[in-house]
Design a protein that fits this description.
D-amino Acid Aminotransferase, Chain A, domain 1, 6-stranded antiparallel beta sheet, 29% strand, binds adenosine monophosphate, binds glycine
């Protein structure tokens, strides 16, 4: 039987494990903290760091590995696995820079599809910062850490930064820490996620997803890992025209080639593009080198081609068409009260025993004496699947509200 090592312990990896478990495969999971959902689906699991190669379990019997989160990619866990002769569904460290370095990503786009970039600078000094301020105006600037921050390091003037002083203070703090800070022109528009499987040479697109990153209703408050998401039965989104779709696809295709050229290494795994539809065309907000969370739940819950088969085709470098059901999906993230603030409720019990018709994906929770408890982060992704967005939404919300505990969720996902 095919043996798969799955690395990671979030809701995204729970969704990957669920998809894999539809095939005749044996899942071996390596997690930093026991995810109760993954634990139920796997043959065995190990607990340990996912970013220290010394702690990755023995690969002798493993047919292939899947790395879910970005942090292991940044330190070359894929390279480590591949070096032992085990294929890996996730890019090597050099190719993963499309996510792990915002500067690398902007430069690849600059060389392939420059119109998809906002004006930007990778500032290495206060002079660079001031020059960019003059060029675009301080009120039009977005400040981003160059490296990984779990989607929480981006600060926008006017929303998170209220004055030039505040902006400079934040930019300088990042500059001091990393030696570089990315500044971008603030774009206006609506966002969409385009994910694709990559065999290194070509992409196979997944249904588009709308992700709700802000903490509170009406898209207000700080950015979070995400509070929910939706996809539609025709795999598009009402505000994404055929032209927008084709533009985003062309940008992704060009990026795949651009990565190979700039990193000197092909990109195998999942390429995730976050796009914004603006008045001057479709622009890239960011790339990820993995499934999105919660976007993985949307697309993998309607994947018709067996996940194991898709992985085998990626390994063979011969990715044919990948099919998805024509169903709508809505994911609502249930989070602890106070999330994402400093007074977030931690170590509080959750009772999911009454939630039934939706699929529940465990995110940042842990088990103690048979109880499931919150950490300070997102707890459970509740996914509804239906013939229409309204039906999927109803299922997701009915079940989200049945989960008991000191929890909250946004009430306007997929409205
Ligand atoms: P990121 O971590 O790069 O995805 O950024 C988080 C969020 O910040 C995005 O989903 C956008 O809503 C916002 N954002 C990032 N870059 C820009 C930009 N150049 N202009 C406007 N909003 C942005
Ligand atoms: N949903 C955004 C992300 O996974 O980065």
């Amino acid at each position: 039987m095919t043996k798969v090592l799955l690395i990671g312990n979030g809701a995204r990896e729970h969704a990957i494990a669920t998809a894999l478990s539809q095939s005749d495969v044996e899942i071996h999971a390596h997690m930093e903290r026991k995810n109760p959902g993954i634990a139920k689906l796997c043959k065995e699991f190990t607990i340990g760091s996912t970013t220290e190669t010394k702690q990755i379990p023995d690969l002798a019997d493993i047919d292939y590995a899947i790395v879910g989160p970005e942090a292991p990619l940044a330190v070359g866990v894929s390279d480590f696995i591949i070096a032992q002769g085990v294929p890996c569904i996730a890019p090597c460290k050099a190719a993963a820079m499309i996510e792990t370095s915002k500067t690398f990503a902007r430069l690849v786009i600059q060389q392939t599809t420059p119109k998809a970039n906002p004006r930007f600078i990778s500032a290495r000094s206060l002079d660079d910062l001031r020059r960019f301020e003059k060029e675009v105006g301080v009120e039009n600037i977005v400040v981003k850490p160059n490296g990984l921050t779990g989607g929480k390091g981006v600060k926008i003037f006017g929303e998170h930064l209220k004055s030039r002083d505040e902006l400079e203070k934040y930019a300088i703090s990042l500059l001091t820490k990393e030696g570089v800070v990315v500044l971008e022109e603030k774009l206006e528009g609506i966002e969409f996620t385009m994910q694709a499987f990559s065999d290194g040479n070509r992409l196979e697109l997944m249904p588009l997803v709308r992700d709700y990153k802000r903490a509170f209703d009406g898209d207000t408050g700080p950015n979070t890992g995400s509070m929910g998401s939706l996809s539609t039965p025709d795999h598009g989104l009402p505000y994404v025209s055929v032209e927008d779709f084709e533009a985003a696809k062309a940008i992704m295709d060009a990026t795949l080639i651009g990565i190979k050229k700039k990193a000197g290494s092909i990109f195998k795994g999942i390429l995730y593009g976050q796009f914004m539809k603006t008045e001057t065309g479709v622009k890239v907000i960011e790339y990820n080198a993995r499934f999105g969370d919660p976007e993985a739940m949307n697309v993998l819950s309607i994947l018709s081609t067996p996940m194991d088969e898709v992985c085998q085709r990626i390994i063979d470098g011969n990715l044919g068409p990948v099919e998805f059901e024509n169903k709508a999906t809505v994911c609502v993230y249930v989070v602890p009260e106070g999330y994402p603030g400093p007074d977030v409720v931690k170590d509080s019990p959750i009772d999911t025993s009454v939630a039934t018709s939706a699929q529940l994906y465990y995110a940042s929770v842990y088990e103690k004496e048979g109880e499931i408890l919150t950490t300070g982060s997102r707890a459970i992704g509740v996914l509804g699947k239906g013939d229409s967005v309204a039906q999927a939404r109803e299922i997701a919300y009915a079940n989200a509200s049945r989960i008991k505990g000191r929890l909250r969720f946004r009430s306007d996902i997929a409205e």
